[in-house]
Amino acid sequence: MSGGGAVRGFLLPDLGEGLTEAEILTWLVAVGDTVAVDQPVAEVETAKAAVEVPCPFAGTVAALHGAPGDSVAVGAPLISIDTSPAESAAGSAEPGTVVPAARPAPGAEGAGADRGGSASQGDLQGSGAVLVGYGTGRDAHGRQGRRRRARTAEGPRTTASAAPSAPPAQELRTPVVSPLVRRLAREHGVDVTALAGSGGGGLVLRRDVEAALAAGRDPAPAAVVPAESLDGGGMPDGGERIPLRGARRTAAERLTRSRREIPEATVWVDADASGLLDLRATLNAADPGRPVGILALVARFCLLGLRRYPSLNSRVDPERAELVRFSHVNLGFAAQTPQGLVVPVLHGAHALTTRELSAELDGAAERARGGALSPRDLTGGTFTVNNYGVFGVDGSAAIINHPEAAIVGIGRIVKRPWVVEDRVAVRPVVELTLAFDHRVCDGEEAGGFLRFVADCVERPGIALGDL
């Protein structure tokens, strides 16, 4: 390349709160492909979620810094792009060479084709794509979001040569939106290019992959490792290693830290759920188009209870020996997904109406199952509810979602003998549990909170005094 190099290294940006690395799930481009500004070039999985990473400048892919399965540190090179004009590409430098150059003068555009060096936060400000930790104006985001969706629907990107693209780039020829859908297909050996997408514009959805599996396609076999590599030969019939990655690894680390650092205690109470079920039936009959679920109602009672017992909506700062008490409630709830248990967070849940709360819970659960949660959707919680009754169990001593101070558990509603006015009757009964950090309050406050929630379940009219 004459007149100075134009191969620019794009560094993995900050993808969220406290994230230090990301695992490459798949490359969306190959060496030699031509990319446009804000075109997604890789799908990566952080400790919070799977996301697509857009490149802030245009050019030809010179090098990919890592293979699927590799971990890349934030601030380390992710991809190198040759931003030189096409006519000078014949004399380009060796792929992967990063040539630094001076930053443009103030007012110069942030993505000029003749700039060298590596992309930083300043480079991204001219890009319309939103990277967590950076962000742009709403107008730019809207335009770039529409452009990005249009590019996805159009099919393949242009390439710099007539040679076939590498296999990772082939995936772009079939419109697939959700990272979860791509992962599900890869894990079960389903070729998404052979599927007819049932979504808009031919998008391949999760149900399309599941239908292909149901049609009799054999899933890819699990990787089995010799017993010797597991425990020195103590297992005669072999075994399997399953790496803890992404959300599963984060959950394992957080749960371990919770048990290690939080002196938790658990209280529980059984409640007659007749009033709760009657309230749900009344609300849903009044507005069938906006149904309210059991989880939303119990969550509403918890939000009201936190007004009376605010210590449970807090966390301990051990370094400063302080209790940090919040004036807002960011409500987390446990959601089971194909990737494991995640805890989506509804920010500002205390300001939502009961119907809004129910709609937000349903929407977040659907996004969680579809792998569409952003890192922000999984962080910042101050209090958590967990409806483990959906698994058919009566009760559980839940683990507090570190660094929060409490979690409420809801068991299944089952008919049991219950004393009503000195007579035994059959009633729908639910067990409620509260695991709490004993550093933030004692049993009196924890018991008072749980008793208030149980009273609301039995006699929902009690909640009117706190509305």
From TrEMBL:
Residue intervals of the Lipoyl-binding domain: 7-82
Ranges for region Disordered: 85-174
UniProt biased composition (Low complexity): 85-108, 153-164
Superkingdom field: Bacteria
EC number(s) reported in the record: 2.3.1.-
Region forming the signal peptide: none
Family annotation (PROSITE patterns): BIOTINYL_LIPOYL (PS50968), LIPOYL (PS00189), PSBD (PS51826)
SUPFAM superfamilies assigned: CoA-dependent acyltransferases, Peripheral subunit-binding domain of 2-oxo acid dehydrogenase complex, Single hybrid motif
First-level EC class: transferase
Family: Belongs to the 2-oxoacid dehydrogenase family.
Name of the protein this chain belongs to: Dihydrolipoamide acetyltransferase component of pyruvate dehydrogenase complex
Keywords carried by this UniProt record: Acyltransferase, Lipoyl, Transferase
